[in-house]
Amino acid sequence: MSQSQIAQLMDGTSLARRIVEEAAVTAANISRRTGTSPCLATVLVGEDPASVTYVRMKRARCAKAGIRSRHFALPAATTTAELVDTLTDLSGDPDVHGILLQHPCGPHIDERAAFEAIAPEKDVDGVTMRSFAEMSFSRPGFVSCTPGGIMRLLAEYDVDLAGRHAVVVGRSAILGKPVGVLLLAKDATVTYCHSRTADLSAIVREADVVVAAVGRPRLIRGADIKPGAVVIDAGYHPGNVGDVDFDTARTRARLITPVPGGVGPMTIAVLLAQTVQAAAEQLGTEHR
Amino acid sequence: MSQSQIAQLMDGTSLARRIVEEAAVTAANISRRTGTSPCLATVLVGEDPASVTYVRMKRARCAKAGIRSRHFALPAATTTAELVDTLTDLSGDPDVHGILLQHPCGPHIDERAAFEAIAPEKDVDGVTMRSFAEMSFSRPGFVSCTPGGIMRLLAEYDVDLAGRHAVVVGRSAILGKPVGVLLLAKDATVTYCHSRTADLSAIVREADVVVAAVGRPRLIRGADIKPGAVVIDAGYHPGNVGDVDFDTARTRARLITPVPGGVGPMTIAVLLAQTVQAAAEQLGTEHR
């Protein structure tokens, strides 16, 4: 197989770095003008190792970008009501500009109730029903971070979406559903597939853009990819495996995100950018 | 062509009548128990003849079902701020249980701002961002009336949606978008097509269920219909023409909604049912 048939990689690491650098400049300007640096509250219930790692990474990136973070580590036995109280308090705390509830929170927590306790203007992770509706209706507001990151990647690589068929595999509230509405807002024809879809391969084969966001390792194989398609892999599984079988998919796709280094870094970059934007809005200074 | 190849009609008139009869029974129970009959506020800006007719029809159906209606006819020159004030007042008026803003309101009105002034518990037309998010996340709440009516029709005719491919043509905020999320909640694979879709016919030909909600007369032709598909026509144009070319589509479909007498009557039925439900909830009596 000749080199020309191998897909170009969509470099999320580089783009994320640029977005974070811009956010850092804005954060510094905010701090200089207002005497207050942007602040993200991170909330974690329990001690799930992956979640602990994710929160630590996010806080480390904040620190490098001049964004303060205040961490709230709640015991695993925290009730929904207690979690809602914490998030309500943070929503009312003028020193907190953005709120991140690391999820999943565990089966005993009503996650939707928790998300809804986050004030819309601090919903920098884009998890509230209000943020979802704003994305759906192309209104200003914070986007869900992974979907927002995917859209930034598509824009960076000049992927034309208008009239193209985008197939989203997965329909979660913070990934599949919002990325679909954002693609629709860019005039793509959008298909939502999921675990109940009858003939997934046949539908994916029609896609000009595939977004794999279903959480099943290597579910999408190269044979499912239309030659020349753009393949976005939002999955992450142990061993640097995504929802797409990278080695076979890259021989058919035109553009593809690697795992890691594709969608992953974009998620955090959008979180930081939106935290800085929230701080700018709440502190009444200009931004971007 | 033999009779067996002609689609069965989905009789919205009969089903709507049954739903309204049930709503009337509930309305009577509410009146008897509380001394207050359910009340729908109807708000109309200007005197567009079609809108005047629609509101008159809705109020007449209310009256027959024992639902009071209070009509607010605002002049065509009404501003968004004035309309928002009216809707905010009605949202706070304990004698009003449901609010219908007849739309379109005219180009000078920010319709979204107006819709958002409707209290969620009175949004019996299912037009607020909150109602949209609730539909999207399969939560309790009022559905948009036409999408809700379509789902009731599909259920009435035992149309199995799980895993089937539903193609929605149109993406308006109160029709295409919400019917798609309701179909997705029933485990259909859902494709949104619209004016920018590259090859509409090819996509519609893959559909097990087609929902035409695009507002273009006879856009969907029989040749676009997969034999045995279910065809829902949510369009209405002068001369009893829908978005589907009925005469050719019915020779391929298994089930099809006529125009009129399909989706149209269902919209009003759902409005009435939801008004009664809202009254029951606000007056603290049981319902359904």
From TrEMBL, chains A, B:
Magnesium keyword on record: no
Pathway(s) per entry: One-carbon metabolism; tetrahydrofolate interconversion
All copies of domain Tetrahydrofolate dehydrogenase/cyclohydrolase catalytic, residue ranges:
10-125
Residue ranges constituting the Tetrahydrofolate dehydrogenase/cyclohydrolase NAD(P)-binding domain according to the UniProt record? 144-282
Among InterPro entries, the record links this protein to:
Aminoacid_DH-like_N_sf, NAD(P)-bd_dom_sf, THF_DH/CycHdrlase, THF_DH/CycHdrlase_cat_dom, THF_DH/CycHdrlase_CS, THF_DH/CycHdrlase_NAD-bd_dom
A Pfam family reported for this protein in Swiss-Prot or TrEMBL: THF_DHG_CYH
Q: Which reaction does it catalyse?
A: (6R)-5,10-methenyltetrahydrofolate + H2O = (6R)-10-formyltetrahydrofolate + H(+); (6R)-5,10-methylene-5,6,7,8-tetrahydrofolate + NADP(+) = (6R)-5,10-methenyltetrahydrofolate + NADPH
Q: Name the positions where NADP(+) binds.
A: G170, R171, S172
Q: Does the keyword Ubl conjugation apply?
A: no
Report the Gene3D superfamilies cross-referenced here. Leucine Dehydrogenase, chain A, domain 1, NAD(P)-binding Rossmann-like Domain
Query: Which segments of the protein form a coiled coil according to its record?
Result: none
Instruction: Identify the EC number(s).
Output: 1.5.1.5, 3.5.4.9
Name the UniProt key words of this record, in alphabetical order.
Answer: Amino-acid biosynthesis, Histidine biosynthesis, Hydrolase, Methionine biosynthesis, Multifunctional enzyme, NADP, One-carbon metabolism, Oxidoreductase, Purine biosynthesis
Subunit comment for this entry? Homodimer.
Function recorded in the entry: Catalyzes the oxidation of 5,10-methylenetetrahydrofolate to 5,10-methenyltetrahydrofolate and then the hydrolysis of 5,10-methenyltetrahydrofolate to 10-formyltetrahydrofolate.
The record's comment on protein family reads: Belongs to the tetrahydrofolate dehydrogenase/cyclohydrolase family.
| Alphabetized PANTHER family for the sequence | C-1-TETRAHYDROFOLATE SYNTHASE, CYTOPLASMIC, C-1-TETRAHYDROFOLATE SYNTHASE, CYTOPLASMIC-RELATED
This chain's protein is named Bifunctional protein FolD
Taxonomic source organism: Streptomyces olivaceiscleroticus
